[in-house]
């Protein structure tokens, strides 16, 4: 799948429709995360990144919280393994750099641990359950 991906960075008002659709499909429908946990009320404070395919359909999303946490990174099933998750993550890390964060932190589902490690994130502490899914905290120090 070698196609052009467009990444839009914006606030919740401009990203909500497409980000919610992706997160609903990935987290709520596929992973059985309760919708009240998925929509945690923090989205309006975040910077959001949404990836679009050549047909301008939303295919992936993620967010950066004001404290430097990255979260809600989700890629539709048909686009996993295509590099779009990396593009979303890189976009959010670069946004954190632009905002002068010294590091970014995320709560990785353990199956995605190697994905984040390839992007410079280092696991710390043990695993824990969140929404019935095993997670690990991972950090990435940022330099200019």
List the helices and strands and how they pair.
Elements: E1 6-10, H1 12-30, H2 35-38, E2 47-52, E3 58-64, E4 69-75, H3 84-98, E5 103-109, H4 113-118, E6 122-130, E7 133-141
Parallel strand pairs: 4-5
Antiparallel strand pairs: 1-2, 2-3, 3-4, 5-7, 6-7
Task: Explain what the structure shows.
The protein has about 140 residues and is an alpha+beta fold. The chain has a single domain (about 5-140), classed as Gcn5-related N-acetyltransferase (GNAT) (Aminopeptidase, 3-Layer(aba) Sandwich). Helices cover about 30% and strands about 35% of the residues. It is built from 4 helices and 7 strands, in the order E-H-H-E-E-E-H-E-H-E-E. It has helices at about 10-30, 35-40, 85-100, 115-120, and strands spanning about 5-10, 45-50, 60-65, 70-75, 105-110, 120-130, 135-140. Strands 1-2-3-4-5-7-6 form a 7-stranded mixed beta sheet, with helices on both faces. Strand 4, helix 3 (about 85-100) and strand 5 (about 105-110) form a beta-alpha-beta unit. The radius of gyration is 14 Å and the shape is globular. The protein starts with 5 loop residues before the first strand and ends with a strand. The relative contact order is 0.16. The model has no long low-confidence stretch (mean pLDDT about 95).
Percentage of helical residues? Answer: 25-40%
Task: Point out poorly predicted stretches.
Answer: none
CATH topology: Aminopeptidase
Structural class: alpha+beta
**N/C terminus separation:** 33 Å
Structure summary, number of beta strands = 7
> Looking at the structure, what is the overall shape?
globular
Number of domains: 1
> Roughly what is the average pLDDT, rounded to an integer?
95
**Annotation field: number of helices:** 4
For the largest beta sheet, what order do the strands appear in spatially?
Answer: 1-2-3-4-5-7-6
CATH architecture annotation: 3-Layer(aba) Sandwich
Order of helices and strands: EHHEEEHEHEE
CATH superfamily: Gcn5-related N-acetyltransferase (GNAT)
Radius of gyration: 14 Å
Largest sheet: 7 strands, mixed
Keywords: Transferase
Domain N-acetyltransferase: 5-143
InterPro entries: Acyl_CoA_acyltransferase, GNAT_dom, GNPNAT1-like
Organism: Allopusillimonas soli
């Amino acid at each position: 799948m070698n196609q052009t991906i467009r990444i839009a960075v914006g606030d919740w008002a401009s990203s909500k429709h497409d980000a919610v659709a992706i997160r609903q499909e990935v987290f709520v429908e596929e992973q059985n995360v309760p919708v009240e946990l998925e929509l945690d009320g923090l989205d309006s404070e975040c910077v959001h990144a949404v990836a679009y395919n050549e047909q301008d359909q939303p295919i992936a999303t993620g967010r950066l919280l004001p404290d430097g946490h990255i979260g809600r990174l989700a890629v539709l099933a048909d686009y996993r393994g295509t590099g779009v998750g990396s593009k979303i993550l890189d976009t959010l890390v670069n946004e954190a750099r632009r905002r002068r964060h010294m590091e970014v932190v995320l709560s990785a589902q353990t199956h995605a641990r190697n994905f984040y490690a390839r992007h410079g994130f280092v696991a710390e502490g043990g695993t824990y359950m969140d929404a019935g899914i095993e997670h690990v905290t991972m950090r990435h120090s940022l330099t200019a």
